[in-house]
Amino acid sequence: MLAGYAVQVEHSRGRRFPEPPHPYRNDFQRDRDRVIHARAFRRLEDKTQVFTRRYSDHFRNRLTHTIEVAQITRTVAGALGLNVDLAEALALVHDLGHPPFGHSGEKALDAAMRTHGLLFDHNLHALRIVEDFEQRYAAFRGLNLTFEVREGIIKHSQDYDGAKHPELAEYLLDQRPPLEAQLIDLTDEIGYNTADLDDGYEAHLLTLEQIRAGVPVFERFFREVDQTYPEAPDKLQFNEALKGVLNRLAGDLITNTQARLQRTGIQTLADVRLREERLAAFSPEVEAERKQIKDFLYENLYYSPSLAGEKDDAERIVGELFAFWMKTPSALPHNYQEKAVQESLPRVVCDYIAGMTDHFIIEQYEKYCGGN
Ligand code: MG
């Protein structure tokens, strides 16, 4: 049973190109499956989350991160009586627009675009992928996803200004997104905050002592674990404590969002949409803990000198390849040269680079920029 404020698939605003119903999957289940079967989804396997493979094969990449976010999202959405199919589809699609090399790749691509008065935004890029670049069906370009999934791609993590983005007018930019979409920004963060502590520890870039001293919520769980399992190896104590942190964040997201829905008297999806602020949120106490984890990761992991070389490489590779194709568009694949007839060359080069895996862009760099 869905809550009154959940998105009901029967009330979906539907697809751009109407399609007959499927005999045993509803429209959001079909959208979830279309995302999973997309080429861009498979490419997430070879896109950096935080670490490249140089450290270990056990670390998250963007695909396994996405699967973890989908898992957390299903739990939270289900507990809140939301539409789990829609929430899952949104979780699976949420990082589809990410370029190679994680955050550094994104930064470099955006910087290159800005020199042409344009910008790169991974949510807008994800929409271009599902609307245009994925070609699987004879009847239309793109995946022909329902309105609610496309809206969630745009609105899950950011509020776009309608005046600056007239092309997004259909996505009701003056309204909040449904709760299924609001969740994604937070479940994404639960996923990567805990996973990055895990991978950072595993990579020996973070020590147990450092995490215990810098992340008070982790320390509280660690002490409990240490009392219950004093003889357990460090790594298992670490795992147990981290599991406690993840459960606390997800549990608080559920109970605090529930409390806010009750307090504000939200009954329907329209109530959610017309509300001034987003309703999915951590409690102030857990929000402070979330911020502590994030600040800790920025200071000790994301900006750590051990990752600096990798980041510089990423920025150089993206920057130089972008400049190369701007100067030598004849070296672009044919279909991209054709696109450049209708669209600006920087946008076409950006689309090409954004779609690449880490492995492919390095190959291109070696081919065209001498790999130095
Ligand atoms: Mg993510």
Put the structure in a nutshell:
By secondary structure, this protein is mainly α. It has helices spanning 27-36, 39-43, 62-79, 84-93, 102-114, 122-133, 147-155, 179-202, 208-214, 216-228, 234-263, 269-274, 284-302, 305-327, 334-342, 345-355, 358-368.
Structure description:
Helix content is 62%, strand content 0%. With 372 residues, it is an all-alpha fold. The protein has two domains: 300 residues, Hypothetical protein af1432, CATH 1.10.3210; 60 residues, no CATH class. Helix 4 crosses helix 8, helix 8 packs antiparallel against helix 11 and helix 14 packs across helix 17. The longest helix has 30 residues. The mean pLDDT is 95. The site of magnesium ion has 5 residues, from helix 3.
